[in-house]
Design goal:
- The protein is of the alpha+beta class.
- Helices cover 39% and strands 10% of the residues.
- It has 21 helices and twelve strands.
- The protein has helices at 8-25, 30-42, 93-99, 109-119, 122-132, 136-145, 155-159, 180-185, 200-218, 221-230, 232-244, 258-275, 304-311, 315-321, 345-354, 373-380, 384-391, 419-424, 448-455, 459-466, 492-496, and strands spanning 293-297, 302-303, 329-330, 337-341, 362-366, 371-372, 397-399, 404-408, 429-431, 434-441, 479-485, 507-513.
- The strands form five sheets. The protein has a three-stranded antiparallel sheet with strand order 6-7-9. It has a three-stranded antiparallel sheet with strand order 11-10-12. A two-stranded antiparallel ribbon has the order 1-4.
- The longest helix has 19 residues, at 200-218.
- The chain is flat.
Length: 532
């Protein structure tokens, strides 16, 4: 019985389709024949069997008895492969840095000059590179995480010789040499207890943030480096001048100060030395490709000397890893972690857990009013010499109200310093004024008010000195007592106006030291470490 779906026309179509497939399988195209000839000439075709028989389904042969021809190569062209990236780990950190070099090279006479300068001082290079081994691994890790060129890891060689305590004549500080205001722009805290421009982690984070911003601004690493040294505004103006004059816009084309002209050549010179130290007679200390330090949390205030002792490292090594701490105590609320050599971190934590004594011998105290150092020492129970030393207070200075001072810790002041004080404490000083008692002789028309205005004092105060009323009019030649600052002069406008009446000369009777409320602020000038 014929199925209901069968139709004679459908049967003919199926037979024709099968015949067509059979014909296609038994034919080879001309292009296939050409490929077979080329393969045979090149030795790519099937090789005769030593037994005189072909192995079934051998490569290059068809399926025997199937009517399907031999399988041919798809293409004559070799496959292009990307260069193979070495999976071998770097032998040391220097090799890792070399592999990450990505900035265009600069080649000019300034680079040659700096290479000669550095290669003539192998001891200097050795000192810098030995000092860098504490910090380089962390910097390289951060650069690779941000996909930035590893040449930037060499920049502290130029900025500070890898000395985190370096301070320039312009008050730039730290390994990356941040100016105070630039540091604040990148959230680097600068207070009475710490300066994050020197902090290894924070200053590196800020420097890389800044360099990335400059690169995004100029689209060129050499211009970004010039801006890091000279300022982005200066580089932008130099580019605008060159563009207006039809001049080039590369680093080498700009008219820059000498320091900036040598800045990138210095970095290029150091790069060349690191890339091939043997060629320049330079010896690099081996720096292993693993972390030098690790971060350890701090939950209580602790003296710096005690922290170093518990970590079983020298005070010098502790400060080298924690250079931002400017005081002899670590305030946990403002500095919740310290850096320690990798193998000493566990030692510190174990010794800290078993330590039974007092952790901190210093605390913070906020001055309630402007006062002398002697008065502050009396109120806090701290020897005056110690108070001056630990807070950097020079002679003849007053402590202004609201200043945060480090003072000796006592049983009554044993609580840890709160975060608001630890993060924002500042020391503000004012000059201590010394007054001298003097007597002048009044001129015609002088009064308490006119003399008070002339010498810059309150009328009530001058009246009190002379036991007279505020509205008193002095007789010509009458003796008037004044207490004047050591370098005090009459009000300039009053002294210059009446040319016919020069101010009466003050006759010094005796000196009387006093400490009235200060009216001006003078910043401290402390000795700074110069660049190594």
């Amino acid at each position: 019985m014929t199925p209901s779906w069968f139709h004679p026309r459908l049967a003919w179509l199926l037979l024709a389709f099968m015949a067509m497939l059979s014909g296609c399988a038994s034919l080879e195209s001309p292009s296939t024949e050409r490929r077979s000839a080329v393969d045979a000439a090149a030795g790519h075709g099937p090789k005769p069997s030593t037994s005189g028989e072909s192995a079934p389904n051998a490569p290059g042969q068809g399926l025997q008895g199937s009517g399907i021809g031999p399988v041919k190569p798809l293409s004559l062209n070799p496959i292009e492969r990307p260069p193979v990236v070495s999976l071998r780990p770097p032998e040391d950190l220097w090799e890792r840095i070399r592999r990450g070099f990505a900035m265009p090279d600069l080649d000019n006479e300034l680079v040659t000059d700096r290479i000669q300068w550095y290669s003539a001082r192998p001891d200097y290079i050795l000192r810098m590179t030995e000092r860098s081994q504490r910090y380089l691994f962390h910097i390289v890790e951060e650069l690779e995480r941000r996909n930035m060129p590893t040449e930037i890891a060499l920049l502290p060689f130029i900025e500070s010789a890898f000395n985190p305590q370096a301070v320039s004549s312009a008050k730039a500080a730290g390994m990356w040499q941040f100016m105070p205001q630039t540091g604040k722009s990148f959230d680097l805290r600068q207070n009475a207890f710490r300066d994050d421009r020197r902090d290894v982690l924070e200053s590196t984070r800020a420097a890389l943030d800044y360099l990335q911003r400059l690169y995004n601004m100029f689209g060129d690493w050499q211009l970004a480096l010039a801006a890091y040294n000279w300022g982005e505004g200066s580089v932008s103006r130099a580019l605008a001048r060159n563009k207006a004059a039809g001049l080039g816009l590369s680093y080498s084309d700009l008219n820059m100060p000498q320091e900036t002209r040598f800045y990138v050549p210095k970095l290029q010179a150091v790069k060349n030395l690191i890339a091939n130290p043997e060629a320049y007679g330079i010896r690099l200390p081996r720096i292993e490709n693993h972390p030098y330090f690790q971060s350890v949390p701090i939950s209580r205030d602790i003296d710096v000397a005690l922290a170093a002792k518990l970590a079983e490292i020298s005070l010098e090594d502790f400060r080298a890893l924690n250079p931002s701490m400017t005081k002899p105590v670590i305030l946990a609320a403002g500095t919740p972690q310290v850096l320690l050599p990798w193998d000493n971190a566990a030692v510190f934590e174990r010794n800290l857990a078993s330590y039974q004594g007092r952790l901190a011998s210093w605390t913070a105290w906020v001055a309630p009013s402007t006062m002398s150092v002697a008065e502050a020492a009396r109120r806090t129970g701290t020897p005056e010499s110690e108070l001056r030393r630990v807070n950097g207070i020079p002679p003849k200075m007053l402590i202004k109200a609201g200043s945060t001072l480090l003072v000796t810790r006592s049983e009554a002041k044993d609580a840890d310093v709160p975060e608001a004080v630890a993060d924002h404490g500042q020391v503000a000083l004012a000059p201590e004024v010394t007054l001298r008692r003097a007597v002048i002789h009044a001129r015609r028309g002088d009064s308490v008010e006119s003399l008070a205005k002339r010498y810059g004092v309150a009328a009530a105060t001058l009246a009190h000195w002379n036991n007279v009323g505020v509205k008193t009019q002095f007789r010509p030649g009458q003796a008037v007592t004044l207490l004047l600052p050591t370098r005090a002069t009459p009000n300039r406008s009053q002294a210059a106006a009446p040319a016919r009446k020069a101010p009466a000369k003050a006759t010094s009777i005796r000196s009387a030291p006093s400490t009235p409320k200060a009216t001006s602020t003078q910043s401290r000038n402390r000795a700074r470490a110069s660049k190594a």
